């Protein structure tokens, strides 16, 4: 991983000190593990002598160069956890949350990310799990925000209408890409115009629903029950916002094509309409623009950056073409 990575560097003593300050000075620890897969928050596991197994997440230093939407991401994640749990969305228990310090302490789950287990799960069981995952993900959408847009964010990305908020969100990520001088498959002005032309479609969304917006298989945990597998919980809520609940299906769609109808059935209980499919494509373009912009600030190694940029760019190419935005 590159030296410009923004993930905080903490050792075991640092993490133990954080937990003692939060949960009790006399705590004893019996085990430690650092999770090194992420590129944003630091994440460490601690085993306690009292039997608890915890995960400690620490946000990057606020002085680092981040993307426009990444202001107060730990505060966003804490709100997603607290409001999601209150609505019955399966997530780890929160033991401590400090938005100012950028610290979150939660239970460590028993299972594993779904992408690590899927080859061991029979096809029929996997399809049943997909339907359950869709139904559980829909619980986030029962939470209503005060405004559309990102939590804990002042300015134009919080608005009274979904079109105003989402168009501001897309403007900001396109501004990030322009500042980086990163190439897109279409001119920036044309991409901006594409989103702006869909204002009426976006205004069909009347309620600011909580959207986790990062429910790919790495953030979906399952656990083995004897010879069977069961869904356990969702993790990582730092991309969350209040908007169109259908946007939840963007990351849930990152599965083999034959599995996605089961997700939709669990999430909606019916197929999507053509206009819903169109809105969903807008949200997929937005997350792909985020993935493009991340490549310049995350400190990926060359291979990871090349793979992410290739996937995001190819997906944008297909979606731009589907919306009639042809290349030069």
UniProtKB/TrEMBL annotation:
Pfam families: APH. Residues 35-271 form the Aminoglycoside phosphotransferase domain. It comes from the Bacteria. This is Phosphotransferase family protein. The lineage of its organism: Bacteria, Bacillati, Actinomycetota, Actinomycetes, Glycomycetales.
């Amino acid at each position: 991983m590159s030296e410009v990575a923004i993930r905080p560097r903490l050792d075991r003593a640092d993490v133990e000190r954080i937990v003692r300050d939060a949960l009790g000075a006399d705590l004893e620890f019996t085990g430690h593990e650092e999770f090194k897969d992420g590129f944003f928050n630091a994440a460490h596991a601690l085993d306690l002598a009292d039997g608890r197994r915890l995960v400690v997440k620490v946000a990057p230093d606020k002085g680092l160069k981040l993307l426009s939407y990444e202001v107060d991401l730990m505060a966003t994640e804490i709100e997603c956890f607290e409001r999601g749990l209150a609505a019955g969305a399966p997530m780890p228990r929160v033991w401590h949350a400090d938005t100012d310090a950028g610290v979150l302490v939660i239970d460590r789950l028993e299972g594993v990310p779904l992408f690590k287990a899927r080859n061991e799960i029979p096809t029929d069981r996997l399809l049943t799990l997909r339907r359950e995952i869709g139904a559980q993900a829909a619980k986030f959408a029962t939470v209503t925000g005060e405004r559309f847009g990102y939590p804990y964010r002042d300015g134009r990305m919080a608005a009274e209408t979904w079109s105003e908020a989402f168009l501001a969100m897309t403007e900001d990520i396109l501004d990030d890409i322009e500042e980086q001088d990163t190439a897109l498959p279409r001119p920036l002005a044309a991409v901006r115009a594409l989103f702006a032309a869909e204002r009426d479609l976006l205004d069909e969304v009347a309620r600011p629903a909580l959207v986790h917006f990062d429910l790919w298989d790495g953030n979906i945990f399952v656990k083995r029950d004897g010879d069977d597998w069961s869904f356990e919980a969702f993790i990582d809520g730092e991309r969350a916002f209040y908007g169109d609940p259908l946007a939840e299906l963007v990351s849930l769609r990152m599965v083999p094509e034959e599995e996605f109808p089961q997700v939709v059935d669990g999430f909606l209980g019916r197929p999507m309409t053509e206009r819903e499919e169109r809105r969903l494509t807008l949200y997929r373009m937005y997350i792909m623009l985020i993935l493009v912009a991340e490549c310049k600030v995350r400190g990926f190694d060359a291979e990871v950056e090349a793979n992410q940029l290739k996937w995001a760019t190819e997906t944008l190419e297909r979606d731009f073409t589907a919306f009639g935005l042809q290349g030069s």
